[in-house]
Structure formats: structure tokens, C-alpha cells
Amino acid sequence: MKKLLITALCIIAGFTANAQKLEKGLLWKISGNGLAKPSYLFGTMHISCDATLDVYTLAALDVTDQLYLELDMDDPAMQSKMVGTMVMKDGVTMKSLATPEDYKITDEFIKTNTGASLDMLGTFKPFMVTAILYPKMIDCPAQSYEMSLAAIAKEQKEEVLGLETVEEQMAVFDAIPYKEQMDELVKTAKDNMVKDKKELADMMVLYNKKDLNELLAFMDKSDNKMMAAHNDVLLVNRNKNWIPKIEAIAKAKPTFFGVGAAHLAGENGVIKLLRKKGYKVEAVK
After folding, report:
1. Can you give the residue ranges of every domain in the chain?
2. Rounded to whole angstroms, how far apart are CA atoms 100 and 107?
3. Judging by beta carbons within 10 Å of its beta carbon (0-12, 13-18, 19+), is residue 238 exposed, middle or buried?
4. What 3-state class would DSSP assign to 258?
5. Which of 6, 28, 93, 126 lies at a CB distance of 3.0 to 4.6 Å from 41, suitable for a disulfide?
6. Which residues form a coiled coil (predicted)?
7. Is residue 44 a contact partner of residue 57, using CB atoms and an 8 Å limit?
8. pLDDT in tens, 245-281
């Protein structure tokens, strides 16, 4: 279960639309506007078949002094903090969010794929149960870019920190109606992850092409309506909250930032928001 919880933490990412065209690239150099040394911004995919870091990313890690991810992945209290924030508020349960027939179908599906009954997980926010299922949606052992980045930082004896707390990130899934989350989980159960598996495979192909524009356009057409309808909560608000933090951190020391690739592009993406603040943000070729 511990491994599943860590994987679930790595999977929280958003979807956005109307992205302005950017160069192809996942690694971006941040410079100018008073920075003594450049920092770097890297778009991750939270679950992958191959999270190997290329030579350019490794070089950027070498010339920076610390790693910032969305969350502080080496915080020993992270798992306990997560467990404390996974439960729905006001005593809501998944049983109250679905018809008896849909609940039974979903319960059998969850038992088959996790070994736990839905009654055991029934107070969890439904999206967290979906996140636990993600490793089942790829035909390979799941890997995480966040874990790869954290491993390099550990080798370099550098600190790993987070742009937001577990509590802040998990609050996103209190802002999205629990019923909508449950409806998506029921859809996943009813087709036994067929659509989810195809969508995730297609996303990995686009990610490997390093084309943020194509990736975001694909995500906007996702069958997961919960994601498309709550772009402000999942992406925009968080991006805007991160900008002053990124500015202060980068001014203090050269830093490698790794966040979900969906956060990078678009008018309210991290790249454009930093450029509006006067920074030069350019793809590393």
C-alpha cells in the first residue's frame, strides 16, 4: 500500500486548453531579470514506462544546487500527511455517490485490481482510488520522473523540496465535486480501464515527442470530463501560486524545478507566466 500511495501522489496532474504554441522541449532554462545564475524547469509525466533522464537534464541537475518538485518527495512524514488528507469531508462516502448497481460493479472492479474492497476505501476521495489504479493502466512496471529526479538529487547530496504541501495539493480534490470524481471512477470500472489505458498510452507517445502543444490539445479532448471542467483548480490557480515561489527560490540559488508537463504551456502556464514577469525562458536543445 505504501508504494501505491507514493505512486498516487506522483500522479496528480491537470489538463488545460488553448495553449499558445511553444517550441518542442521538456527542459527549459530560466535566466535574466536579475538572476545571478540560471535555473531550469522540466516537465514531467507522473507515470511512465521509462523515466530515464537524458544527458541535457542530467547536465542541468549538475549545475543547480537543489531540486524542487510539486511536493517534497523525501519528506519522511509525506505518507502520513497524505493518508490524513485522502478522506472526503463531512462524512461523505463513495456508497452515497453511486447507485447500488454502479457501486457493486465498481466494488468488484476495485477488488480485482487492488485486493481491497470499496468499503475499505469508501471514505477516500474517488480520484485517489483512480490514481492508485494508474500502474494497472500501463503494460510495464511503472516508473516516475519525480523519483528519478529525486534519486539524482540524493546522489548529489542536494535537498529535495516542494512548491506546495500535501495538504495544499490534496485540497484540489475537495474543490472538485466528489460526485464528478465518482462518476469517472464508475466509468473506469464499467469498461475495465480500456479507454484509460489507450488514453495513457497515447499521452506517453506525445510526451516522448516533447511537444507540449500537442500534449495539451490531446488532454483537452480527454473523455475525462472532470479534468476539462476544472482546469482552473487543477492547473491555473496552482501555476499562479507557484510563480512568486519560483522567483524567490531561483533568486536565492540556482534550482532545478520539476513539475507536471501540463503545467508548462498555455497562456497561464508556468513558462508564459515567468516570461510575463521578465524572465527569459528558453527550451534547451
Report:
1. 2-12+23-283
2. 10
3. buried
4. strand
5. 28
6. none
7. no
8. 999 999 999 999 999 999 998 889 999 999 999 999 9
